[in-house]
Design goal:
This protein is α/β, with parallel strands linked by helices. It is built from 21 helices and 27 strands. The strands form 7 sheets. The chain has a 6-stranded mixed beta sheet with strand order 11-16-15-14-12-13, sandwiched between helices. Strand 1, helix 3 and strand 2 form a beta-alpha-beta unit. Helix 6 packs parallel to helix 7, helix 10 runs parallel beside helix 12 and helix 15 packs across helix 21. Bound molecules: alpha-D-glucopyranose. The site of alpha-D-glucopyranose (GLC) has 6 residues, from loops.
Length: 726
């Protein structure tokens, strides 16, 4: 679809102006004024506030064609109000709240002149060593799809372009080392890594960013089959595709291009429409066009796409953004506190939480108890640090100063210097309970911040061990940008709350949970026992020799029995410390009376799965009910479980409710032997569950196509779903 405005602009543009539209530049102060006046940039990155408005004014009032700029910024999990890191938001299993947070972030960013955010990150991740797991929605493609769509809707509903990134497979970095090669077989690519991008495109994401990664021999910024072939031609994506930072010229480092000119040629021919940061297009496109190495049609298509995004954002009418009601900080703070509460996952609680208001004295200990910067997490540039509230502040706000003591114990998370231990132990001995805030500082996750080990850094475990030895009960609150191996923490703490990096209002949110609101977060990613188990994820294949899922958990410290001839280890339990979807609250839920109606799912039909959920505890609580399915026999091996739906359900103490999910045939689709998307007839198992290793289950059948009334089919038909390119 092209507008008359775009057609007439294209007709007027010089070649230099066309190439200019495809270049994104990072100014340093006002050093790009002449370039913008000359129409030499279609987008700027990392300018906010007065600089953003100044450059937009130059483009709109003082360039020849007055084409507005796209002003891009990494607004990854909030702008001035910081929400939990995306991995924490994923733990909420709460798309409406994630959408609301994205809308607030967009309003705040737009108020500073930003009209394009490089979010959501849709990379599915199965390796907690990778630093960017913090920016992801975890290991499941459905959860990533639902939350990615929520963010796209939240941002774009406020006039800020979303960016589905990093297309595709970047999260499978070998060894969890950022930028490393990604060797993903086609079936896994289409069933695990592509679905969130397909969902975001279907939801109308205006932009897509290619990843740094070499996918099975082709760097994504030169991957024509997936960028032009699948994303654009097959899925019909008509927005713009931007490279990642220098990812185009890095193809010369990957080794698929000899020089910058060849990088430029490969990337634009592959279907990219804008170059971020590097300048190979500015320097080489004209010559490539002159010698016919790049077609004028491809150039014009790229320019159209850039202009189309600007038109869809309304920038030609309102280049300085929409007039909007002043952002009420209280709204943003309320949303940030609520989403932080819903993102925390209670992993252990041995008759300690919730703490009553009459709890007596509380010793708040640890390097992250009063660490506003670190609790915000990675990818934070525009935070209002004055509006960040720590756990110490949150508990003092609730109990007053008199009953609350504070000792760091360790100056920093990574410190091995135990000089502060004694004061911490003294504070513990004078208290009725210890709230110990430990984990990772913000600098241990994010881009290029990968770890080879996933235990607590520094002397934090030793601090916990000594605090536990005082006999005063310890609540461990763990801040982190990734799944950690928390077995040793669980052994010593009476309660264990996983808070991720919870954002500006993380402190009060954690206090809300410690003093009464029932936690409702669920793990968006498997927590392994040790780094040696990685990769470890719930939707794995069964293998021909699966270990006994119920084999007793081996007591730590005793020699493991030989694992026998199973997919297991001699020296480590084969199961996770905590599985995908797991989380506790302050009450208990029972699942009963599962019914599947009908128990034969006909092609084109729907199957209703219903059960009774009962809150059998003494407190109100929220359960995240998860629907899983397994294809028991198929033409290729299928995962032991796949999440197909989920829902947050809040019940008062003693309340019960009939809950029903609908399942449709196309949700059973997978890629067959020939690479086509199919649904095969046969037996399936369905669970309605509290997490990925439990649940009420029953079998159902996906019927062969009902005999076609106009003619008999002689083979077991499959329901063809439009195929995709390899
Ligand atoms: C970075 C990241 C990408 C980010 C971009 C702009 O290298 O890979 O996610 O949006 O550059 O900062």
């Amino acid at each position: 679809m092209s507008s008359s405005r775009i057609d007439s602009l294209l007709a007027e543009m010089t070649l230099a102006e066309k190439i200019g539209q495809l270049c994104q530049v990072q100014p340093h102060g006002r050093d790009q004024e002449d370039l913008v006046r000359a129409g030499g940039a279609g987008s700027l990155i990392n300018v906010v506030g007065d600089d953003a408005y100044h450059y937009q004014w130059l483009a709109v009032e003082h360039s020849r064609l007055r084409i507005p700029l796209l002003l891009g910024r990494d607004v990854i999990h909030g702008f001035s109000t910081v929400f939990p890191i995306p991995l924490g938001q994923a733990a909420s299993f709460d798309p409406p709240s994630v959408r609301e947070a994205a809308a607030t972030a967009a309003r705040q960013a737009a108020g500073a002149g930003v009209n394009w955010t490089f979010s959501p990150m849709l990379d599915v991740v199965r390796d907690p060593r990778w630093g960017r797991v913090a920016e992801s929605f975890g290991e499941d493609p459905l959860l990533a799809s639902r939350l990615g769509v929520a963010m796209v809707e939240g941002y774009q509903g406020e006039g800020v372009a979303a960016c589905a990134k990093h297309f595709v497979g970047y999260g499978a970095a070998q060894g969890g080392r950022d930028y490393s090669e990604t060797a993903i077989p086609p079936r896994q690519l289409h069933e695990v890594y592509l679905p969130p991008f397909e969902a975001a495109v279907a939801a109308g994401a205006l932009t897509v960013m290619t990843g740094f990664n070499d996918l099975d021999g082709l760097p994504m910024s030169g991957h024509a089959p997936l960028v032009q072939g699948l994303l654009k031609d097959r899925w019909g994506f008509d927005g713009l595709v931007v490279s990642d930072w220098n990812s185009i010229t890095e193809m010369a480092v990957h080794g698929t291009a000899a020089d910058a000119s060849e990088c430029a040629r490969q990337s634009i021919v592959a279907g990219l429409d804008m170059e971020m940061a590097s300048s190979s297009w500015r320097h080489h496109l004209e010559a490539l066009l002159e010698r016919g190495a790049v077609s004028p049609q491809r150039l014009d298509d790229a320019v159209r796409r850039v202009l189309r995004v600007k038109e869809r954002l309304g920038l030609f009418e309102t280049p300085y953004g929409r007039s909007r009601p002043a952002e009420t900080p209280a709204t943003a703070a309320f949303q940030a506190r609520q989403l932080a509460r819903r993102s925390c996952v209670l992993l252990e609680n041995h008759a300690l939480l919730p703490l009553g208001e009459n709890v007596g004295r509380v010793a708040v200990v640890g390097p992250l108890a009063d660490a506003g910067h670190d609790q915000l997490g990675c990818w934070v540039f525009d935070a209002d640090h004055g509006a960040t509230h720590s756990v110490l502040a949150g508990i003092r706000e609730r109990l007053g100063d008199r009953r609350v003591s504070f000792e760091r114990g360790l100056d920093r998370c990574r410190s091995d210097d135990e000089h502060g231990f004694q004061a911490a132990l003294d504070a513990a001995r004078s208290a009725d309970v210890v709230v110990l805030c430990i984990g990772e500082d913000a600098g241990l996750s994010g881009e290029a911040h990968c770890r080879a080990f996933i235990e607590l850094p520094g002397a934090q475990q030793r601090l916990l061990d000594q605090l536990a030895a005082t006999g005063v009960p310890v609540v461990a609150v763990v801040f982190t940008g990734r799944p950690l191996a928390l077995g040793a923490v669980a052994d010593k703490a009476r309660a264990l709350l996983l808070a991720w990096h919870p954002g500006s209002l993380g402190g009060p949110a954690i206090a809300d949970l410690l003093f009464g609101e029932s936690p409702s977060g669920r793990l968006p990613m498997t927590l392994p026992r040790s780094v040696g188990q990685i990769p470890l994820y719930y939707n794995h294949k069964n293998t021909g020799r699966p270990p006994d899922p119920d084999s007793p958990r081996v007591p730590s410290g005793t020699p493991l029995d030989p694992s026998g001839f199973f997919a297991a280890y001699l020296d480590e339990d084969h199961r996770p410390q905590y599985p995908f979807g797991y989380g506790l609250g302050y009450t208990r839920f029972e699942y009963a009376d599962l019914e599947l109606t009908p128990n034969v799912l006909a092609p084109g039909g729907t199957l209703a799965a219903s059960f009774t959920l009962r809150n059998v505890g003494a407190r109100a609580g929220t359960e995240v009910v998860q629907l899983y399915v397994q294809d028991l026999v198929a033409s290729v091996t299928r995962p032991v479980r796949e999440l197909k739906d989920f829902r947050r359900v809040s019940l008062e103490a003693g309340e019960s409710r009939r809950i029903e999910f609908e399942l449709r045939g196309e949700q059973l689709a997978f890629r067959g032997l020939e690479g086509e998307r199919i649904v095969e007839p046969g037996r399936f198992r369905l669970w309605l569950a509290a997490h990925s290793q439990t649940g009420l289950s029953a079998e159902f059948e996906y019927a062969e196509r009902i005999a076609d009334p106009v003619g008999q089919r002689d083979e077991a038909p499959t329901e063809e779903v439009p195929a995709e390119l390899p």
